[in-house]
Amino acid sequence: MSVSQPEIQPFGKGTGKLLLATEGCAALSDLEPQAVVELLAEAGFLVLRGFRPSLEDFSGFVKAHSDRVTLDPARSFHGGDVAQKVDAGTQAVGLHLENGNSPFVPDLTWFLCERAASSGSQTTVCDGYRVWDAATEEDRAAFAQDITYSRRVEEAKWKQFVMHQSGGVKKVEDITFEDFRALVSDADSTTLVHLPDGAAHYTYRTPAARTTLFGERLSWANSIFGPSYNYEKPVIAFADGTPLSAGLTDRMKRLTDDLTEDIDWQDGDVALIDNTRVMHGRRAITDTNRTIYNAQSYIRRDLLEAVAS
What we know:
Layout: E1 7-10, E2 17-20, H1 33-43, E3 45-49, H2 55-64, E4 66-70, E5 77-78, E6 83-85, E7 93-96, E8 108-115, E9 123-127, H3 128-134, H4 137-142, E10 147-153, H5 155-165, H6 177-183, E11 190-194, E12 200-206, E13 209-212, E14 215-220, E15 235-238, H7 246-259, E16 261-263, E17 270-274, E18 278-282, E19 291-299, H8 301-308
Parallel strand pairs: 2-3
Antiparallel strand pairs: 1-2, 3-17, 4-19, 5-6, 6-19, 7-18, 8-17, 8-19, 9-16, 9-18, 10-12, 10-15, 11-12, 13-14
Helix pairs in contact: 1-8, 5-6
């Protein structure tokens, strides 16, 4: 990092870290990207406090660590082409990976709290390493096979997503279904069907307990409990077509509830989450004046390689 480093403290009961700004390290741009990524690999998630960045500062911080920024096509951008306002109603949001129920799971999830809530509304985090380690052998055996997510996505939403993912080389009206299909890097894990009304239907196969961005250790990190605020609720099943039993999901819900931690936001806070290891969600919003922005991205390969070496 810079000559003067942030103060680093534990966050919560797991391995999460709190980075506090110091006199000589007062801006996000003072943080050295490789050092940030090394700390993230250990911690799973970071909360950065006291840096109080603008939207532009936040966007620059995201880009400094990312090869590519992705998006949720149901949200609008603010302050450029990185940050999107979190606007998924006011109800509590279940634990999930960002875009974890689709074949386009980003490596990193980012948050900027511009204005903190006066009460409630915390973002929740749950480390999938801790979940998998605490699960019973019976439940780990149940999740030895993959799960699938299946759902329909409206034409306007998938076309907007494809346009952004493709770097804007085509206008939305010129995007074709073949352009969408071309974005799916693993055809064995994803089935795409073009519906008569222009919508797309996909089935995406993925582990519920997965290896992570930084290693081969298994993390129970998925979107089984995740939201569908702007989309049709997906059908979730085991890869052989067997539904997830209520008993199994109830046990995993109780376990994740026990291991979930809250981020009590302060104005200007930033959070960085390893989206292959740590699930996030939200407590019910009790102060609708809160303002939080989200970004999603794929990590710079050189940073990932430097941490792995």
